[in-house]
Amino acid sequence: MGSKERILRQKEETRANIIKAAREIVKDEGWQGLSMRKIADKIEYTAPIIYEYFSNKEAILQEITCRGFCLLTKDLETAKASNDDAAHQLEAMWMAYWNFARDNREMYQLMYGVEMACCTQRSTEADLPYKLITEVIREIMKDVNPTDMVIKQKYFTFFSVIHGLISINIIGDGLSNDINKQILKDAIQGIIRYIKE
């Protein structure tokens, strides 16, 4: 391996270490505890080195947000591929959405601004979950040939219920996992029945 490739690899590793350190700090201290100085201390670099990779804390937050939407999209694609029936796909996708939020609590908070200000810079990654889910909604409703506005309305009906339940659980103690899953399944199945009519 040439020196150019080695330097590139080292830069990518340092960038990845910065993101990893930021996520670890957030798990321990919450988003309000994150600072460039703490990241530098955690990876044993000086703060100016961090600024060579990210112009400020918001740039790090934006990177984490984009990665979050990529991970969520991957989970949704896997859930969609698990079944051929559009209604079952949609249920599996929303359950995958729920599981992502539960397993990546801090990242979800950042992505959607739960108990914090989310990144204001919109990314193409942020639109991917919406596109995936609305494709399946459109497939379920194909017999009525819905407009884009109707599809959007149905998406936000789902999103409101599921995001609301996730937010309740992030902010408060929430309900038990079994009760949450039953509420979630009831809501998803009820909305699917409604949009199939």
Automatic annotation (TrEMBL):
Q: Which GO terms describe its molecular function?
A: DNA binding
Q: Which Pfam families match?
A: TetR_C_33, TetR_N
Which part of the chain is the HTH tetR-type domain? 12-72
The lineage's top-level taxon is Bacteria
Specify the DNA-binding region ranges. Answer: 35-54
- List the residue ranges forming a coiled coil, or say none: none
Q: Does the keyword Nucleotide-binding apply?
A: no
What keywords tag this UniProt record? DNA-binding, Transcription, Transcription regulation
State the protein's name. TetR family transcriptional regulator
